[in-house]
Amino acid sequence: MVCARGAAKRRRISTVEPALTILANIDVLGHLATFLEAGELCQVRATCKTLGSSDESTFDGLSMTEEAARRMFESASDEEKAKMRCFDDEGWIELCHHLLMLRTPLTFDQLGHVEYQAGDKAAVQGRGFGAAICGNHIMRAGKHWATFISGGLGSFVGVIRPLPGWGVDARIHLPFIPGDHEDLRRERTSRWEGDVHFCILVLHNGKCRYSNFDRNPEISMKWSNWEGDNKYNSGINILGTLLDLDNGTLSVYQNGQRLGILKDGLAGQYCWITCFVKNSASIKIERGYVAIDA
């Protein structure tokens, strides 16, 4: 029986070793990396020393997995690279994660008192006061378009800082409620540049609200006049938005026409967000701008 177990173990090892030998080829691994998410690449890196170690590396101190991620990032288009600001404290695998997110449809990944519509992660329905964030789709540089398709009254759309811990605990901290801003400030990082941490368009009246999450609730949430206020039509339920991080502006479009800059002074990183104050409200998001009335 012992001999049989030993033989079975040797067979397993002999099966695994050739597979790792094939995988431990940078060209093969680079091709495989195009089909994997960042978390899966991290799992590959942890599979064995050959793939995950940077000791005695031939890739300028990078492990084979990190080198595969670097090559994938370097092969991105000029348009994609213009949206990919690189920070000193992140590695190639994290950069590849953001690159891959640019290539996928927008989805609401963090929910607070809202629910998906028919299982569609791009469409959410309000359940009273709540919000939904495209938390996996962080905008870092360049120009980013999104289309919001609204249903019912009582919703807002706009941008917010990345909040990776938001929605994890039982209590959801809502960004349009000044009393919750102290909790939101705890997630601040060095990538929160400037003082516009949250900016939304109120869909039923076309007003702009923004916040720097100030410690004083009396001044934390502000109203702002914007140049397209008098041209905004609340009867049109398709809204185009353009976040231009090169110029620090968030602009609004309807019927294919630019209404104006909703807010300037935006800097750092943002995610798309929608907020609700009524059960009847719903929002669907799409990447790009669909300038067709619905």
From TrEMBL:
<dbReference type="InterPro" id="IPR043136">
    <property type="entry name" value="B30.2/SPRY_sf"/>
</dbReference>
<protein>
    <recommendedName>
        <fullName>B30.2/SPRY domain-containing protein</fullName>
    </recommendedName>
</protein>
